[in-house]
Design a protein that fits this description.
The chain is mainly alpha-helical. It contains 20 helices and 6 strands. The strands form 3 sheets. The chain has a two-stranded antiparallel sheet with strand order 1-2. It has a two-stranded antiparallel ribbon with strand order 3-4. Sodium pump that utilizes the energy of pyrophosphate hydrolysis as the driving force for Na(+) movement across the membrane.
Length: 738
């Protein structure tokens, strides 16, 4: 039974990859349109691959150096091994591969979606969403396959071969080495997300400021030299970057739950490893339920509600997961369990999983409200656009700040409730439940940039108005789904970071984080500051690269005669080169902060101060991530609302009107918020927690061997009343077993 369940996990990952291959083949078979459309999509695909190759070259050097350092550090403590370097490199490779798979299919699906939009909205939705589902299934399949297979290897290598118990040092060592896989995944994810975000927003801002505002031409006009770079950016940032991002989140969530599961003594039918296996089984079955949910994403005709169809697929996969988790938990876990003295039942674990699914759903609903067209927050920004650029900015900032209130209350309630159900394991398994349907969540998220690209190709190819109308419907929904995806990601990151934080505290041998201590309080403030300097570096990088882009676009308009009359072709490759070089150069500093700051604080000041810093960066990062992502999403949809016309104080306004120009400014400010710094916050807080977890054995304040012996000792005290010389005497018999 134990072996069957362990091997089922990577098998479910393979099922996800097989389904991905089938869907990818279907997308590839779809019609690509005329020669001009194919040529434009080729420019986009070539630009995306050029960026990835440049990025991989830099990250390759980083991975090798980090692997060497990890291999050396693995020789220094009993609970690690040089094998952690191999685990790290596999995680880094899988993370990069997940992003590549998504980007490759997105650059195929975009032009096919454009062609499908020439026939119907229904077919365009099917092509774009199927392209997104390839991304989702690829990420989830690789994560489950990688984690499941490596756990089998390390479990056999360090635990079974030594004849050791599940709760001892040997399992701690196996999971510490497995943490290298998560560290590799999150490291690549951070650089991919930041680099891709800088790329896409530098191109987008440059294209908007010169093309739309100065030259007065449409957003994706073929005459705009930056338009190809802008569409490339959608793929390298919102597809490849997001794929690596959620791959890292997925892996970190499962790993954190496994590390806490090791502390639970479980009398089960799986050799005592049921609490460790449970999050992996949930993730594997979540792939199956996501595939089932994908079948519900369809509309009847051009009047169908695309958002409703996507919600139906999402909610159905969540419901399937919730129902199945009852039977999984009842089958795998014993009636009663405990972690760090906290007693709970297997049904409490089930309730925590359901709570995680509810929190994820509520986060998506709340984010949709604050970023969707036609809702009060976006309408308030539209109204304030009537009085100029400044009031539009004020309105967007206000909406972003307000949008943190309800999600934080939901998140706080979820953390408190999950802990009440099953202690720290409850918080971790709630995050695992939330992330179980990652394949579906990412399919919905990746659908957006594919639709955005499809609209760009339609505009550049000068296709009939109804084609762009259909792609605009998909694109507008895609803006909302992108925002809800980021809300979902930051919520899962908060729960995951708390679970990783708890695991770090256990391995580091500290009982509490005492903020009355001056050094711990200082660490708390430093941690709270890090998301601000990280965001500053990312946004400033976008600003510098955008200035270069603006100057290049202006130069081409000025020096190449005939561009505006369609008589000369712009030098698209110059703009692609600017974004590529800028993003690779500028991604280093933010990434270094996330990796190096935990090392400096941990080794210089100890685990308790590092714990204070992690608490600060988690709280500050979650708030910054929500604020920036939601403000940017609301600004974007406020701008898009003008394309169909909006009524302000009884008067209709359309594109090129003064309120529309104000909304373009707001969208330009919001671009790096929602696509560069905002979504990077969830990777930042998880990566810092994972770095802390990996170095925990090196800075631990406990004697591992003594603790391990104590964990394996069982003391039984039996009291009896005996009659001796006519008197009642109480005696004790103490039995100690190891």
């Amino acid at each position: 039974m134990e072996l069957a369940l362990i091997y089922m996990v990577p098998a479910l990952g393979l099922v996800g990859l097989l389904a991905m291959a089938v869907k990818s083949a279907w997308v590839t078979k779809q019609a690509t349109g005329d020669k001009n459309m194919v040529e434009l999509s080729g420019y986009i695909a070539d630009g995306a691959m050029a960026f990835l190759k440049a990025e991989w070259k830099v990250l390759g050097y980083f991975a090798v150096i980090a692997g060497i350092v990890l291999a050396w550090s693995g020789t220094l403590v009993e609970t690690s091994s040089p094998v952690i370097a191999i685990s790290f490199l596999i995680g880094a490779f899988f993370s990069a591969l997940a992003g590549y798979i998504g980007m490759k299919i997105a650059t195929k699906a975009n032009v096919r979606t454009t062609q499908a939009a020439r026939t119907s909205l229904k077919h365009a939705l099917k092509v774009s969403f199927t392209g997104g589902s390839v991304m989702g299934l690829g990420v989830a399949g690789l994560a489950v396959l990688g984690l499941g297979a490596l756990f089998i290897v390390f479990y056999q290598l360090y635990v079974v071969s030594a004849g050791a118990g599940v709760n001892g040092l040997e399992m701690e060592k196996a999971l510490e080495v497995l943490a290298g896989f998560s560290l590799g995944a999150e490291s690549i994810a951070l650089f991919a997300r930041v680099g891709g975000g800088i790329y896409t927003k530098a191109a987008d801002v440059g294209a908007d400021l010169v093309g739309k505002v100065e030259a007065g031409i449409p957003e994706d006009d073929v005459r705009n030299p930056a338009t190809i770079a802008d569409n490339v950016g959608d793929n390298v940032g919102d597809v490849a970057g997001m794929g690596a991002d959620l791959f890292g989140s997925y892996v970190a969530t499962i790993l954190a739950t496994m590390v806490l599961g090791r502390e639970i003594v479980s009398v089960d039918n799986f050799g005592g490893i049921a609490p460790i296996l449970l999050p992996m089984v949930l993730a594997g079955l979540g792939i199956i339920f996501s595939i089932m949910g994908m079948a519900f994403v369809t509309i009847k005709d051009d009047k169908g509600d695309v958002q409703k169809a996507l919600n139906m697929g999402n909610w159905s996969s969540i419901v399937f997961t919730g129902i199945a988790s009852f039977f999984i938990v009842k089958h795998m876990l014993p009636e009663t369990l405990s972690i760090r003295g906290y007693e709970f039942t297997n049904m409490d674990v089930f309730y925590a999983i359901i709570l995680g699914l509810v929190v994820g759903t509520l986060m998506s609903i709340i984010t949709e409200y604050y970023t969707a067209m036609g809702k009060r927050p976006v309408l308030s920004i539209i109204k304030q656009s009537a009085t100029g650029h400044a009031t539009n900015i004020i309105g967007g900032l206000s909406v972003g700040m307000e949008s943190t209130v309800l999600p934080i209350l939901v998140l706080a309630g979820g953390i408190y409730g999950a802990y009440e159900f099953a202690g720290l394991y409850g918080v971790a398994i709630a995050a695992a439940g939330m992330m179980a349907t990652t394949a579906m969540q990412l399919a919905i998220d990746a659908f957006g940039p594919i639709a955005d690209n499809a609209g760009g190709i339609a505009e550049m190819s000068q296709l009939p108005e109804e084609v762009r109308g259909r792609t605009d419907i998909l694109d507008a929904v895609g803006n909302t789904t992108a925002a809800t995806g980021k809300g979902f990601a930051i919520a899962s990151a908060a729960l995951t970071s708390l679970a990783l934080f708890a695991a770090f505290v256990g391995i580091a041998g500290i009982d509490a984080i005492d903020i009355y201590k001056a050094d711990v309080l200082a660490g708390l403030f430093v941690g709270g500051m890090i998301p601000f300097i990280f965001s500053s570096l990312a946004i400033a990088a976008v600003g510098r690269a955008a200035m270069d882009m603006v100057n290049e676009v202006r130069r081409q308009f000025r020096e190449i005669p005939g561009i505006m009359e369609y008589k000369a072709k712009p030098e698209y490759e110059k703009c692609v080169e600017i974004s590529t070089k800028a993003s690779i150069r500028e991604m280093i500093a933010p990434g270094a902060i996330a990796l190096i700051s935990p090392l400096i604080v941990g080794f210089a000041f100890g685990p308790e101060v590092l714990g204070g810093m992690l608490a600060g960066v988690t709280v500050s990062g979650v708030l910054m991530g929500m604020f920036q992502s939601n403000a940017g999403g609301a600004w974007d949809n406020a701008k898009k609302s003008f394309e169909k016309g909006v009524m302000i104080n009884g008067e209709m306004f359309y594109k090129k009107s003064e309120p529309h120009k104000a909304s373009v400014t707001g969208d330009t400010v919001g671009d790096p918020f929602k696509d560069t710094s905002g979504p990077s916050m969830n990777i930042l807080i998880k990566l810092m927690s994972i770095v802390a977890l990996v170095i925990a054995p090196h800075i631990s304040e406990k004697d591992h061997s003594a603790i391990a012996d104590a964990e394996m000792i069982k003391k039984e005290v039996k009291k009896e009343i005996q009659i001796i010389d006519g008197k009642k005497v109480e005696t004790e018999t103490i039995t100690i077993t190891k």
